[in-house]
Every structure is written in C-alpha cells, then in structure tokens.
Prior knowledge:
Helix content: 25-40%
Number of helices: 20
Oligomer: single chain
Shape: globular
Structural class: alpha/beta
Largest sheet: 7 strands, mixed
Number of strands: 24
Radius of gyration: 26 Å
Amino acid sequence: MGRICPSPRSVVQRNLMPNRKSPQKLLFLQLPRLENDAAAGENLPIAALYLSHAVERAGLSSKYSSRWLTPEEQELDDRHLLKKILDWQPDIICCTLYLWNIERTLHLLTRVRQDLDCVKVIVGGPEVALQHPFLFRTGIPDAVVVGEGEVVFPQILSALEQGLQTDLRQVAWKTGRRYSWGKLPSPAVILPECLPPAHHSTWNPDPAGMAYLETGRGCLFRCSYCRYGHLRRKMTFLDEAEVSRRVHILMDRGAKEIRFVDPVFNANPALQDILNSLCKLNRKGKLKFFAEVQADLLTPDQIHGLAKAGFSELEAGVQSLDPFVLQAIRRPVRLRRLETNLRLMADEGVRVTIDLMYGLPGQTLQEVRHSLQWAWQFKGANVQCLQTLLLPGTDLRTEKRRWRMQADDRPPYGVRSTSTLPPEDIRAIEEFMHRKSPLDCMTEKFVGATLPDLFNERITLDLINKQRADEIPGFTSRRALVFKAPSLFAHRKNLTAMVRRALTSEPNMLWQFVLQPEHEEPLDLLDDMVAELKKCPKHWMDRFASVAGWDRIAARRVFVLLKPSGRYAKSWMATAEALLEDHFY
C-alpha cells in the first residue's frame, strides 16, 4: 500500500469526517453524454462498477453504502439531480470525468458544495490530466486521480477516513489552494484481479441486451493524439477460459450483443483460442459481437474466425494514408496488408467502420480527400473522419506549437487550423464529407407540421396566461418548450425572457424552443430568438458544431411547429427553414 502521510489539513479533515458506526454514503457520479438524437444515448457506469468492487475486494464494504445514478436519474436536469443528491446526503462523491461531462459535473458539484460543504469529492476518468486547462483552477476536487483507479481508490478512502493523504504519484490532493502530487509509484493493475468476478451481481446486460466486456488493458501503440497507451507501459489480458466464462454468463443473463472495449482486441495473445471458444458458445449465431482492431495485424484465419464467431462489426483505426503523418503521430500501419484485410472482412460479411482523422500534423486538404476517397471504395464500409482533438495530457497537445495548431481550450478541444491545414481547408473537408453523407446529429427539419427531431419531454406554454419567466416547468436534461399564442410576435418580450431564464437556470442541458404559430409570424421573431441564444456561453456541443468557422448552435435550437390545418405560404416556410438552418446544427 502506498505510504499515507499527514498533511497540513489533517486535523481539519479529522474533524470533518465524523466518527460513526453507520456506513459512509458513497455516490458514484458519471453524468451522461447528451445527444440531439431523439433517443437518449448510453451511459454505462463501468468505472463505478469496477471501483465499487475494489472497495469490496479491499474489505471495506461494511464502511460504505454505495450507489450510482439510475437510468431515470441520468436523464434529469441539474436542478432535479441536485435535489436527488442533497436528499441522499452523500459523504463522498466519486466522479468519472469525460470531455462531454466535465463542465456540467463541475457546475453541479459547485452547487452541491453550497449545501454540503463537508462532502469530499474524488475525480478521475479519461479527462483528468496533470496539466488540465481548468480542472485544478476550480478547486472543487479534494483528490484527483490520473489513470487507473482500482488499486488506489481504496487507499484514498482509507486516507480520507483517517484525515490523511496518500503519497502516490498518480494522486493529487488539495492542500489549501494548491494541489500536490505524491511521489511513490502505484501498484500495477492486473486485469483478471481487478474486474468484478464473472458471476458478480452487477455483471449484467442493459435492458436492451447490450453488454460490455474488457479483455485487455493497455495498448500496442503510443499515438501522440491519445493518452490511453501512455498511462501504463505493460499490457494485461484475460485468458481464453476467463473470456469464455464471462461471455457464457452474459448470454445466460440475456445478452444479445457484447461490445469488447479493448483499445485493440487483436492485441490479446490468446486471440485465436478466444475466437474458437466464441464460435462454440455462439454456435446458433444468436449473439453479436463488436470490437476495435488493428486491421493490418490480423491474419486471414483470424478474420475468418471473427466472422464465424459472430463479429458483425469491427472498427479499424487508420487515421491517414500519408507515411509522414503516420510517423508524426507514431501510428504504424502496413497499408498493403490493411487493404487486403479490409476486403477480406467485407467478403466474410463483417461490416467495417474505418476511422480517419483530419487536423493531424502535416496533413493537407489533398491528403485528407485522398484518404476519404480510398476509404469510400470499400464495399459496405462505414467511413468516419473525425476532427483531431488536443486532449489534455496528450503529446500532441504538448507539441501544438511545433505544428502551429490552433484549438479550443475548452472541450472538445477541436483543432481549427495547423501549419498545413488552414481554417478554409478544414471547412472544405467538412463540406466534402457532407456531400457524401449528412453529418451525424444534424437536424432533419426545423419547420413543419411534424418535427422528427423533437425530444420526448415537451412542455406547452401558453403565452396568453402570462406565465412568469422564472417558472420553467419540466425535469429532464433534454426538453422541448412549445410556445403558443394567437400572436407570438406580440408576446416576444415574454417569450425571450422565458428563453433567457431557461438558459440561465439550466446552462448544461439541451433545449429546444418550439414556436407554434397560428398564422405566419414576422421572421424578426426568429432573429430575436437567435440573438438571445447567441448571448449565452457556448455549450461543448456548440464548440464541436462550430468547426471550420460554422457558427452554428447545437445545444439549443429553435423550431417552428406548424398546425396541420394552418395556412402558411411556401415562401414563408422556406425562408424560415433557411434562416434556422443558417444558425443551428
């Protein structure tokens, strides 16, 4: 166990952590990634399951009463989520941070601290890095963990209970207004030892039959744009027997699809034996599998084995075809073998997702176009070309001056230009891709009698009743407010006041402001609403959508819901649609 040492705050901490016989309340908090898709996205709390088991394995279960958000609670807005947390009165909150939830999580914790000033906050997750651009400035966490947490988490809990601090180099403790890192290396995490056992009660598929399984930790590569492979030097795997045991139990518990979450599934030295076992288990083909692979390292026999076992989809990271770019990002690829294997996968009936990137060091417009055209030639392949992100803690972020990279300093940290790819070329890439296929999560229609993009929670507000602007009903984090009045334009001040109040009260959720006119309204009303929305600080989704100079809003959108029996000129509808398309994603 890492050395636990007294700190200047130890006496204060001892006083704040009361001696009690009842278990301390431990809340695992992982806020979901909010999407504009009509259906809510997935947010499986894998980290909470692993850490909860780490507490159990360390013999500390009797000291803590643990819980995490239910699927229904995950859909709540901040106000109702705050009430749930305050009602439960946790002693410790352990947060998993991603680029899509860090700002919202810190905002929520600030509000929690206003009422629960003694609550202890531990943060970890992929977003946490030593040189994070704003996490440490907030002063919210009491302990910050970089990398894997299964081994160090019980030690952190024990230190908190004693009013002490660990001395581990991957853990920073708040001391006054500063954070100090420990000096000792953390014990290695061995995957077979840290996973909850196969028969564990938490090892279940979700209600839709989706299950997740980690069979390997660590990565073959040290890509400069990614942190995963840098956080540990050695890889650790489950053997064939353990993988088979876990898949068998998941099948018995109703799994219909299993997604392997390994960064490179075929890095497992027992791959062929695993595939042979999966073929026997899935003899009737009732189960589907998904995995990410390094496609050029697969053999023909392995590709056949993947298809026979039931892998209906594989994801292959390619990033670029330019040898200079691949060398700059430390991503080796054997291109001839890659092409051969991608065709073999298609021949075996496996759908392949080919991952490309733009904004990498040395990339040009011509190179990205060439890579896209190359990827599109593969029959049935799903091609996605993603914006390079300068993620905290990555080598590429450290080297951004070398490549003259310009990027946001807030999530998602998207690269907007490089020394070889100016903003106009990035916009040309986005337009080039959009001509081939529409971009994900773009609104299908802004004006119409039916609006397929509307969220499930829809609150109708009659402006005639002069509802107070501070009364914004509803409870979910994805909400549509439908405004009605004989003349919406006549009530525009009240309308914009309610929009302003909604944005102020819940800045981290996704809003849809829906006008339901009884007749054609002046389009100045739409301009007023757009202007009001642009006053609000950008949501992380807005930064993502405004790539390449597109100043479009993604997190808050305006719609016009027409009455089926209403009379509206086609020119008016077309003008309204075009106006909203110009401003919203």
